[in-house]
Amino acid sequence: MYKIAIIGQGYVGLPLALEFSKHFPVYGFDINANRVNELNEGEDHTLEADLDLLEEVLDAARTTDFSRGYKATASLEDIKEANVFIVTVPTPIDRFNSPDLRPLISASEMLGKVLKKGDTVIYESTVYPGCTEEECIPVLEKNSGLQFNKDFFAGYSPERIVPGDKVNTLTTIVKVTSGSTPEIAEMVDQLYKKIVTAGTHKAPSIKVAEASKAIENAQRDVNISFVNELALIFDRVGIDTNDVLEAAGTKFNFLKYKPGLVGGHCISVDPYYLAHKATQLGYHPQVILSGRRVNDMMAQFIAGKVVKLMIHKGQSIKGAKALILGVTFKENCPDVRNTKVVEIYAELKQFGLEVDLWDPWASQAEVKHEYGIDIISNIPEDKTYDVILLAVAHNEFLSLDFNKIKNENTVIFDAKAILNRDIVDSRL
């Protein structure tokens, strides 16, 4: 019988814990005590959890003497009982765009203190090929005193959860699995088959599984960078990028990507992990990094375009009032991790504009903590703006009455191409 501890109870770890707790006793471990209390009370600020399911598995833990069900905990002592540990901590990049493995290493150090003979550690965090065996396993060995593939084992199964997507969920996306031995690979595969209705794909090695995740997001990043570069070109030509894409999209094999800001915890980060490994091996990647450069400059381009439009309309730049709609990294989702909207905000502030930022989905406290920005709770009724910039395609913005918040010369820029074209001055 498996007793599972899932390390990290965020966008990835929580849905995973809830699904496994239908079948097994599951500890949801998180170092944030407030997060643990929230979950044990049946609440979830990330909006990723099925709250009915959360209540159900919390109750199951109480009524079945924890033969199955869910308990959130911040206690290392609690998870000592587990024999399967699944690590879902974030893997960010630092200010030099290099992998920041500190959360992963810290989690491995912690697990090394509770690891027992026969235990299995499965990593889900996105990393470069070789990271699990080269960086994490030695830490587990050092802190446990146990020998890898003799006393304990490892697996890797990359997360594929899309924040905010209620259609393509954990259970409906094929799960890639792998293990440090053929026997463990099969064990890990069978374990995930218990919860993933779409099935699994057993990779031949941990490195293959790691690489598969890295290239998923690198491919998407490169494809978006192509249409972003088209947007930069067509802006100079004087034609609308979306018009061009609609025309080209009438051919059956044209890939329908749209230009935009590329943020979030995966697409804008994972390519740097792959590039880091390639550079270590003596190869400097061209396509991957060129795509990153294009995508990283889009916030600057949007801010510059807005200022040009203001000048064209005869507006004064310094002291002009701007409203940015949306700060999350994607629409209809509260996730603000690595959002590029804050870069637009910073650029406009540097130009001398007074900028308000409103997002009905984002946590004011989280944005303040992460970026030092105070976002407004509502659009003031008695205020009009010289610039309105739609940065995120939240549904709430479609019904917004722009006439109430604009003046005669207001510049309206639509970075997501969702607004009525009659009301916008330009769009990406």
UniProtKB/TrEMBL annotation:
The keyword Secreted does not apply. Pfam families: UDPG_MGDP_dh (PF00984), UDPG_MGDP_dh_C (PF03720), UDPG_MGDP_dh_N (PF03721). One of its GO terms (molecular function) is oxidoreductase activity, acting on the CH-CH group of donors, NAD or NADP as acceptor. The keyword Oxidoreductase applies. SUPFAM superfamilies: 6-phosphogluconate dehydrogenase C-terminal domain-like, NAD(P)-binding Rossmann-fold domains, UDP-glucose/GDP-mannose dehydrogenase C-terminal domain. InterPro entries: 6-PGluconate_DH-like_C_sf (IPR008927), NAD(P)-bd_dom_sf (IPR036291), UDP-Glc/GDP-Man (IPR017476), UDP-Glc/GDP-Man_DH_C (IPR014027), UDP-Glc/GDP-Man_DH_C_sf (IPR036220), UDP-Glc/GDP-Man_DH_dimer (IPR014026), UDP-Glc/GDP-Man_DH_N (IPR001732), UDP_ManNAc/GlcNAc_DH (IPR028359). Belongs to the UDP-glucose/GDP-mannose dehydrogenase family. This is UDP-N-acetyl-D-galactosamine dehydrogenase. Keywords: NAD, Oxidoreductase. One of its GO terms (biological process) is polysaccharide biosynthetic process. Residues 323-421 form the UDP-glucose/GDP-mannose dehydrogenase C-terminal domain.
